[in-house]
Amino acid sequence: MSPRSVIRAVQHAIGTHPQSEITVSACCLTGGCPWTLSATADLKAADLAAMAHTGRTGHPTFARTFEDVALVRRLELNEGQAAVPPLPAPR
């Protein structure tokens, strides 16, 4: 007898890992402007920093980068598995 594979569709969901946080960094896109914002988890402070830069310089356009740790989970959890795995140790 030859081996057989069984393939079935399994639904998944993706979201921010509940033990992590979203960070944002930004830089001004006005030509030659060196303003940047280092990565921070304080999203409101990041918005205020960009608005303060606009108020001082009139530069209205920024590139923002948001980063998080994503967690993909099966919508039907396997019995006996933790609902949320711990975050891996930093490399």
UniProtKB/TrEMBL annotation:
UniProt domain DUF7848: residue ranges: 1-71
PROSITE patterns found in the cross-reference section: PROKAR_LIPOPROTEIN
Highest taxon of the lineage: Bacteria
Pfam family, one: DUF7848
Protein name: DUF7848 domain-containing protein
Organism this protein belongs to: Streptomyces chrestomyceticus JCM 4735
